[in-house]
Amino acid sequence: MKLSFDWLCDYVDLKGVSPHEVAEKLTMGAFEVEEVRQVRPEVVGPIVVGEILEIYPHPDAKYTKIRVTKTRVAAGAEPLEIICGAANIEVGQRIPVALPGCRVIKSGAPFPISLRNVGSVTSNGMLCSPPELGLPGDAEAGILILAPSTELGTDCIELLHLKPDYVLFVEPRSNRGDALSVIGLAREVAALLRRPLHQPEWQLPEEELSGSQFDFKVSLEKSDDCPFFSTRVIADVTAGEAPLFIKRRLEAIDVRSVSGIVDITNYVMHEFGQPLHAYDFNRVAGHELSARRATKGERITTLDGKERELTDEVLVIADAKEVVAVAGVMGGKDSEISGDTKIIALEAAAFQPARVRRGSRLLGLSSDSSLRFERGVDVAQVARASDRAAYLIMSYCGSGQQKPRLGKLAVDGHDKVAPVHITCKMKELKRVLGTELTSTEVRELLTPLGFEVTKGECAHVQPGESKEQAVQVAVPSFRQSDVTRSIDIVEEVCRLWGYDNLPECIPPSAVVPEVQERVTDEVRDTLCGLGLNEAWLSSLTSGDESALGLFNEEQAVRVLNPLSADHQVLRQSLIPGLVKAASYNYDHGQQDVWLFEVGRTYRRLLNDAPRESDRFNSGTGVVEQRRVAGILMGQHALGEWLDHSQRQSASQLDFYQAKGVVQNLLAKLRVNQEKIRYFRSEKVPACMHPSRSCQIAYDNSSKKAKREEGSQLQILGWLGQLHPALSESLRFKESAFIFELNDLDHLWGLRSSESFCGVPATPSVNRDLTVDVFDAVDHAAVHSCISSAAGADLTAVELVSIYQQPEGQKSLSFRLTFQNPEKTLTAEEVDSRLQKVRDSLINRLSASFRA
């Protein structure tokens, strides 16, 4: 929002307050001012209106291009000799005269005027062209010619609005449509400076138009799309130039002047925050307008000259034959105001913000109007803004001696706004702000913003409490979209009271972070500690991950209006984004890529799939999961003392290093490591190495269940090497390893409680056990069998080595640690437990042991 300081002064008395002080007040009042820019150079008087009485050649022969004028600058005063080289001056013209001592503009820089001898003639000033006064125009065109009726001696700085203006660039807020207007921000400035607000005043004449030729009809298809729609007819107008003060103010905020009528609608839009649109009455078929949805295939050529195809999601304004405007966005070319327009239909409406936003996005078309409608306009002020524009048009857009005639407002819908009352407890106000304010102080703060504050009673009063510990606040219509709760009232009081006035104090209690934040922080801290860097990637993808085995078309959640082909589907896995990030880094010379991401994935739940009640959104049918994934490639840590051959060997990552990252993460999350299983599976994604990858599962069964019914595994994710074919297509010269854990919320639920035990007073006993099993038996099954058979004294099982035998078998060597906290175990007791382990392995896994 560009706010003209000169314009602002119409509504708030800002004497003694500089534009930069206003900017600071607005910023501290929650309206950030990004910049204050001077938009007009300063012209210093005296510059007055003069009249040319005589024109004659310069007496010196060498000054053939210069003429001497006799110019009177005040009634009854002696005329002054002033030289001038412009060709457009004539006797009898009223022109601006810069007298000695003033300062004008030459070539964009200040230029002082003084008595100047030009040959034998002394020039007593200068006749001014528009650029010399800081006005738009061409200096070559000559002197600025004023209206003959302009009073002699009038101060041109006031007459031509030559005072320097400053524009404040105020950052718009998404829920404050009222703040996209001069009056809206003036209300804020008045409240912050404790000064009165002056609203514009005018008086419309009685309706003069009569006759069926001026009848106009309006209609609404859906009140949900447009609660209030109005049009009024104004006849005998001319689309000439707008008055200078309107043009100057629009020019200051970078709005191009078009014509008097269009400029006035733009002026009122910026003044009130209510967009308006004027149609040529004779180019509206049937003399009727309706707000309705477009039908598929309808087209319109908008004011920017582009033809646009519409859909049934776009709200439009249509006459009896065709669409004449995209509602709330832009008018149509065929019904625009032209130089021949004599009768206009002035439309003012309140369109539903979401509907305008949808139409604007679908058409790729944005405007000052859509910016305001998308944030919401005040339906109660639509008719008033229409009245204001009608008054200005009738005042400044007459055609010669004929004054414009006004028709009555044709309306469909209603502009009545139900009152909203909010009770704000004074106790709550004190608790949040840390300072005690009286109800009178609250009233004095809120009343300038349009709120009506009265003393009230709390709905629920504790015994012994006073009933005057609350205020009743009536919310004005233009604030009902963003002030809906008691805490919103507290916020308004706070920013008007002043954030810098709040006392400094320690919060009464610590805020415990949400569980989701805690697990995310834990994961980030752990992986960063392991040497990985966090990546922040987009949740939107192109949907081309099918070849990676990480995308299911049936479960895809697609964007209705994608910004590009690369951002049309919500991701179902974090891995494709990490692989692309690794490829980008690798192509740019960064070969050591250790990245991870914590993010959300989305998939549509199929009809026959079980509902996951804790994460399933029944309204959308979409399951959201928070996951963590990583990609490891290149060297992790490197000592500068290593030679080239050592550096090459040090860079060779393997599966077990990637597995170690996952194990450390799960251990940090306090997931019981003895219940984690890593096993081969055909269900791993196609992007992974077929024999160097595994699924990760959690064994949720008890020891008794393991013996009787088997394991109950919950799949947590997978890890492994990136498929060599994929690595080759990405031009990776080194192996890359990836992992993904599916559901961080579920992992957090698997956390074991923290426990402590004393230092054992008895020694531990180690035994090594080598067992031969078939290749199809994974080590997790052997580990589980050992743990269940060895008894409670087994404290640790560690896989030491794997030896591949040629007969389709493999040898697994384990180190078993036994310890009893109450007594020292004897060799016989340990051997007995070891024998039970051997028997169990033979019976359950058909294992064998070498002599």
Could you give the topology of this structure?
Elements: E1 2-4, H1 5-8, H2 19-28, E2 33-38, E3 47-57, E4 67-72, E5 80-84, E6 94-98, E7 103-106, E8 109-112, E9 116-118, E10 121-123, E11 126-127, H3 156-159, E12 166-170, H4 182-193, E13 217-220, E14 228-235, H5 244-252, H6 260-272, E15 276-280, E16 288-293, E17 299-301, E18 307-309, E19 315-318, E20 323-326, E21 330-331, E22 343-350, H7 353-363, H8 368-375, H9 382-396, E23 405-406, E24 410-413, E25 420-425, H10 426-433, H11 439-446, E26 452-456, E27 470-475, H12 486-497, H13 515-529, E28 533-534, E29 540-541, E30 569-570, H14 575-587, E31 593-604, E32 616-617, E33 622-633, H15 644-650, H16 655-668, E34 676-679, E35 688-699, H17 703-708, E36 713-722, H18 724-729, E37 736-741, H19 744-749, E38 765-774, H20 779-790, E39 794-804, E40 809-818, H21 827-845
Parallel strand pairs: 13-16, 28-31
Antiparallel strand pairs: 1-12, 2-12, 3-4, 3-6, 4-5, 6-11, 7-8, 9-10, 14-22, 14-23, 14-24, 15-22, 16-19, 17-18, 19-20, 20-21, 25-27, 26-27, 29-30, 31-33, 32-33, 33-37, 34-35, 35-36, 36-37, 38-40, 39-40
Task: Give an overview of the whole structure.
With 851 residues, this protein is an alpha+beta fold. The chain has 21 helices and 40 strands. The strands form 11 sheets. Strands 28, 31, 32, 33, 34, 35, 36 and 37 form an 8-stranded mixed beta sheet that branches. A 5-stranded antiparallel beta sheet has the order 5-4-3-6-11, with no helix packed on it. β34 (676-679) and β35 form a beta hairpin. α6 (260-272) packs antiparallel against α9 (382-396) and α20 packs across α21 (827-845). The longest helix is centred in the last third of the chain and has 19 residues, at 827-845.
